[in-house]
Amino acid sequence: MRRAIAAALTLTLLTGCTSTAASSDGKLNVVTTTEILADLVQQVGGERVTATSLVPPGGDPHSYEPTPADAKRVAKADVTFTNHLLLEPQSLIKTIDANAAKDAPNVSLAEAAESYGAHVIPLVENIGLDVLWLGLRVRGTGKQRGATRTSSVQLAATKLDGPGQLVAYLTESLGQPDRYFDSTDGLDKSDSTTLPPAAHTHLNWAFTKPGVYHLTLTGSLDNNDGKLQPLGEGTFTFAVGVDPHSVKPVSGGKATVLGEGHTDLTVDLDSGQVNAFSDAKKVGAAQSQVPAADVVIDVPNKALVAIPDDPRFSFLGKAGSQIHQLPQAVLGKHVHGEIDPHLWEDVANAKAYVQLMRDTLISQDPDGKQTYEANTKTYLSKLDELDEYVRTTLATIPADRRQLITTHDAFGYLASAYEMTVAGFVVPNPAQEPSVEQVRKLSDTIRNLRVPAVFTEPNLAQRASVLIQVARDQGVQVCSLYGDTFDDKARTYVDMMRHNADELKRCLGDHR
């Protein structure tokens, strides 16, 4: 069945209501998006607070879809805390913003904690493909257009010219394809997708025949008011299996050929323009916006892949036949922004969260000020001890062995704060065997860096099959790190971070 594209359903039950003074047991009712945030709040609130998480134990905060019961819980909350910076899916953010009581603080921690000393870093995606890594992006805030964090930008494929068909689709975590643009039965209103402001996502781009294609994308803004504000449109040229330097762009002028690095087809909310936002070296700048009409996207013959022998992928054609495909690279739905949202992997950032939580609770429950301040002081001292423990533990790992190879980009802050290095790799489509080249690159990374171990996350084990197999083939350990969720073995933030430090030392330390 074709993917029905629409903005995520907002579970609005009690919009415009006012907050209850406290829960039935007299405690402040605090709802957070993740267990990590709930634990931090509980440490600050103590006996005056009941803190719960919407994302259940072991759930993935990047992909959790809210339920009507979640909307009811938010409506009854005295305080809500999200991480945001696009950590949580927009459907969850919409549910919170639509149902949170007007007089109940609704705090986005990652953004607000900077004033408490939190340090944010760019989300660096260091995946070295031998073809272009192509996605979709929304840039700008759109404030002058009335955009908020619950707004959506629609990107629609409105026209395709070329010798064959185009299917742009996303492979979800368990291998289920989700089609965004599919010209095989004609383009219509369903050939669109939505992204929040300042977000981007990854896709597979499959072409059924070689030749030159022209794809027109049109942008529009949805501010949840029942109207779509038109933005711009742009037409991109794809050179599929032909020399891109021999292909003229739509402008007829000099082409900017994009064939390596990372590029997103982008709607700019502020200017309304549609362009290519690229880090490709050939553009000549660290990151550049190139007008759509000047772009030629190279889809070379080395991008040829066989269609999986899996009925879920029959929309691509006959199993075993070859198509040109630019890969999505990162497995699963992966909508995020330009800033890494996993701030808590640096304990100093968790301290900033805690202080912001303290002041928020005091604003809602002034009678508890003394308790909140005392609890925070005690917990900050514990976090100082934790920070020192993580730092001194990781310092025992030889510098040449401080390499992190994982299946999830959740550890940038840990690496930045504690002098580790994150190495990237390609996660293949789970519906087909990884290519020899993909396995070779991952094997070379492990071999060249001489890493003694790779790391999976307890809740993402299903994404790790290739990493585990290559690690076994290379004779290295497979170890476990906590990224953004707990399990039965780690039920608090302190336990989680101590485990990560101990596991890194155990698996990467010099035991020769």
Automatic annotation (TrEMBL):
GO biological process: cell adhesion; metal ion transport
GO molecular function terms attached to this record: metal ion binding
Signal peptide: 1-21
GO cellular component, one term: cell envelope
Principal place of residence: other
Listed InterPro entries: ABC_LPXTG_lipo_actinobac, AdhesinB, Bact_metal-bind_prot9, Lipoprotein_PsaA-like, Surface-anchored_actinobac, ZnuA-like
Highest taxon of the lineage: Bacteria
Keywords in alphabetical order: Metal-binding, Signal, Transport
Keyword Transferase recorded: no
Localization terms from the record: Cell envelope
Protein family according to the UniProt entry: Belongs to the bacterial solute-binding protein 9 family.
Name the UniProt record assigns to this protein: Anchored repeat ABC transporter, substrate-binding protein
Source organism of this protein record: Kribbella albertanoniae
